[in-house]
Amino acid sequence: MTLPSTIDPQDMRNLVDHFPQLLNTLQLEKTIINLCKDYRKKGISGICFLGMGGSSIAGNYVKALLEQSSKIPISLVRDYSLPTSIDTDWLVIAVSYSGNTEETLSGLVQAKERGCNIIRITSGGEMGQESEDPIIRLPTGLQPRATLPLMLSAILAVTEILIGSNRTDFGKLESLIITMNSSWKEWDETPKEMAESLFGKVPIFIGANHLKPVAYRAKCQVNENAKAPAFYSEIPEANHNEIEGFFDIYGCKMIPIFLRSQHESTRIARRLDITYDLYLEMDLSPFKIQAQGQTLLEEMLTLTHYLDSVSVELAYLGDVDPVSVERIQDLKHRLST
Ligand code: PA5
Question: I need a surface site. Which of 72, 158, 184, 330 has the fewest CB within 10 A?
Fold first, then answer.
């Protein structure tokens, strides 16, 4: 596959700007489509996404999006070993951008030993070496987190075939996000304005249902792009613990950011409203960000594109390079020696 010629892998703002186009860049090979159709016919017991960090996000999104409607379990493993329940009748989709992440490689070895069906998604490394497993190849030279739209389009398409749900039209999705986000008119603040409000503070992104992984992605993007602390939490769970912790923040200005959806149930909406009010009464200056678009997936992706852009603006405000991740590399290097 070839990347759009306007992509500059060394420029994170450029990569984030191309988020909508990258959703519609990778076309699944016929052999992979046919293989997934065969799995569907034959019947598999479950789908397990295996991956770490930037290579785990797409699986996390697809799980959140489809697990309620899927008749087979969808599982996500971000660790060295697979649960015993994942056996020969499962499909394991191992994702590692570099192809060298040790946790993912370890899970892959286990999947092989158990005779699971396997699809690899990678740009190279150990996982990219020729093997009997089908491989979806990603272009080299990018940061793993910047490939979320590429990975997502592959993983979502594969999963939709496997569970027999309607296929996403990525061309339509691309146009929609470009229309919605080209001048950020639909949002209360531009990403730059939002970044200015967050600069020097610690954001905590709060999501419910399909926006839980979006909140998690936003936290990771602030960590890795802006090299700044950030957290995330999930409603309803955070209502049972975290709200107590906010009474004492040790002088650190934490900013709760509520990610809101038009698909919230009445009770979830009520919880989010009350939690917002509680934080307001505690002088925490919370924000609400309403996701744009109609469907769950549109909401997830318009919001991700917006928050990815906020993280890049935060990096520029802090005068840091949003591309480099020296500590992650240092840690991997130390582990390998
Ligand atoms: O964003 C990053 O660089 C990390 O979160 C990586 O994605 C993570 O360390 C896993 O590496 P890889 O994506 O190459 O498997």
Answer: 330
SS3 assignment, position 205: strand
Active site residues: 224, 240, 332
Q: Could you read off the pLDDT of 269-291 as tens digits, one per residue?
A: 999 999 999 999 988 899 999 99
**How far apart are the C-alpha atoms of 267 and 243, rounded to whole Å?**
17
For residue range 30-81, what is the model confidence (pLDDT) as tens digits?
999 999 999 999 999 999 999 999 999 999 999 999 999 999 999 999 999 9
Closest to 53 in 3D by CA, of 132, 148, 177: 148
147 CB under 6 A from ligand 1? no
- Nearest of 84, 135, 78 to residue 114 by alpha carbon: 84
Residue 148's φ and ψ, nearest 5 degrees, are: -50, -50
pTM of the model: 0.97
How far apart, in whole angstroms, are the C-alpha atoms of residue 109 and residue 193?
46
Mean pLDDT of 219-229: 97
* Crossing angle (nearest 10°) for helices 148-163 and 30-42: 40
24 CB under 6 A from ligand 1? no
